[in-house]
Specification:
Layout lengths: L7 H13 L17 E5 L7 H15 L4 E4 L10 H10 L6 E5 L2 H8 L7 H6 L8 H6 L1 E2 L2 E2 L1 E3 L1 E4 L2 E4 L1 H7 L8 H14 L3 E3 L4 H16 L1 H6 L10 H14 L11 H9 L3 E5 L3 H8 L9 E4 L6 E5 L1 E4 L7 H12 L1 H11 L2 E2 L12 H11 L1 E4 L9 H17 L2 H18 L1
Parallel strand pairs: 1-2, 1-3, 9-10, 12-15
Antiparallel strand pairs: 3-13, 4-5, 6-13, 7-12, 7-14, 8-10, 8-11
Helix pairs in contact: 1-3, 2-15, 7-8, 9-11, 9-17, 11-18, 13-15, 17-18
Bound molecules: beta-D-galactopyranose (GAL).
């Protein structure tokens, strides 16, 4: 297991403001025994597709727990770019929310090792949760025999979303299966249409693209080995992947820090861009936009990654000293429940973490994802908390941020080698 952060300075201000506000964890009144009067749940699900999924689960929670006031403490910013920094400040100040979103894997391990989480083994025993979550997922949230969170979903990171209309206009008959084909198609779109070849958003969406390019160029075993001791980030294959990354980025619209993943993905369904590499939360967003699968958009494994599920999982935690512990446990029960997961995931664009969910609810992209999950090899997402812990994640983001300015692949590789040396020795 292992983790990130960015824009730390601006976010520190946000954290201070947040701490000064009632309902942001500073509620002393209800910090009494048990604390079942309200529950403050912290996530970064404020935007298209994401908020809808959360709302569906909140509605079910409220039905079952009418006496508990629900405080939605979501902080905007795709992939938690702002939220994780705010969370870190709150945890540091011993003002945890009652439950917060954390990625299964290395990211969660950071919180566990810092002693910030309570074990939830009691809940797994009581709700027989070991029987309903895949073992390899439970392993990612277990440390020294204790389980520290409740996974609500499984997302897939390595998806190539594309516009059938733009591909047709460019004369491309099928999505690219390899990185070489991808680069050729990007050039074709550029030469033959006036559409954006690949749509990109804020810096983190480039980090997200990088993991798919690494996986596509290295293959699953060599990609997985990058996160373990003995990793060789200086290999010619990584050099090649970084050159591919640079070439692909040269076909992107200008990086706009103010544009989050939603607008970048929307360019595809609006027929303004040919491709976007993004996680399957985009499927939830496209559904919310009322777009028709296979017509307004289509999808394929990110080039070179067919047969590999680059996975990540959102999970909810029980922080130590949660002000409203009883209510937090009620929330975790909701997140763990079949009803909760089947309400949340079809909106969110993720498949359920539970193996006994009602599969008839998962249509179109999600029906495909369920099949793929059964039959694919697994790779852990770096950007979304599975393979690299928060510090390593930040180092990679810093390296990518510099690269977006200087376009120097040799410097990028050196920075990634250094980040891995640090990251692996710290884990
Ligand atoms: C991921 C998270 C997803 C989705 C995405 C975009 O890190 O796991 O649930 O929210 O960021 O914000």
């Amino acid at each position: 297991m292992r983790l990130k952060r960015r824009g730390a300075a601006s976010v520190a201000l946000l954290a201070v403001v947040c701490l000064a506000l009632a309902g942001c964890g500073g509620d002393k009144k209800a910090t009494t025994a048990g604390g079942a009067s309200k529950v403050e749940v912290f996530s970064w699900w404020t935007g298209g597709g994401e908020a809808k999924g959360l709302e569906a689960m909140i509605a079910d929670f409220k039905k079952k727990n009418a006496q508990i006031e629900f405080v939605n403490a979501a902080v905007a910013g795709g992939s938690g770019t702002n939220a994780k920094a705010v969370l870190a400040s709150r945890l540091q100040a011993s003002q945890p929310p009652d439950s917060f979103q954390g990625h299964a894997g290395a990211e969660l391990l950071d919180y566990i090792k810092a002693g910030q989480l309570e074990s939830v083994n009691f809940l797994y025993d009581e709700q027989k949760l070991r029987d309903v979550f895949p073992q390899q997922l439970v392993d990612q949230i277990t440390f020294e025999g204790q389980i520290y969170s409740v996974p609500v979903n499984i997302h897939r990171s390595n998806i190539l979303w594309y516009s059938p209309a733009v591909l047709k206009e460019a004369g491309i008959s099928k999505p690219p299966a390899t990185i070489e084909e991808f680069i050729a198609d990007l050039k074709t779109v550029k030469d033959k249409t006036n559409k954006i070849p690949i749509s990109l958003g804020a810096q983190w969406t480039a980090d997200h693209l990088l993991e798919s390019v690494l996986l596509g160029r290295l293959g699953v075993d060599a990609y997985n080995a990058l996160w373990k001791s003995g990793a060789d980030w200086s290999s010619p294959k990584v050099t090649q992947a970084l050159q591919d990354f640079a070439t692909i980025l040269s076909y992107a619209n200008a990086e706009a820090a103010s544009t989050d993943w939603q607008l970048a993905a929307k360019n595809v369904v609006d027929g303004k861009a040919a491709f976007n590499v993004m996680g399957d939360w985009a499927a939830g967003y496209f559904k919310e936009l009322g777009k028709t699968p296979k017509t307004d958009f289509d999808w394929a494994a990110a080039p070179g990654t067919d047969g590999v599920y680059m996975w990540l999982s959102d999970s909810f935690t029980l922080p130590k000293n949660a002000p409203h512990r009883d209510a937090a446990v009620a929330w975790l029960k909701e997140a763990a429940s079949k009803e909760g997961q089947d309400l949340f995931n079809p909106q969110k664009g993720s498949i359920p973490a539970r193996t006994d969910a009602d599969t008839s609810l998962y249509k179109d992209y999600l029906a495909w994802a369920l099949e793929q999950w059964k039959n694919s090899k697994l790779a852990g997402s770096m950007w979304h908390g599975v393979t690299a812990n928060n510090a390593w994640h930040t180092d990679i983001d810093t390296a990518v941020g510099l690269f977006l300015k200087n376009k120097n692949t040799a410097k990028l590789q050196k920075a990634l080698v250094d980040a891995a040396t640090k990251g692996i020795s710290a884990s």
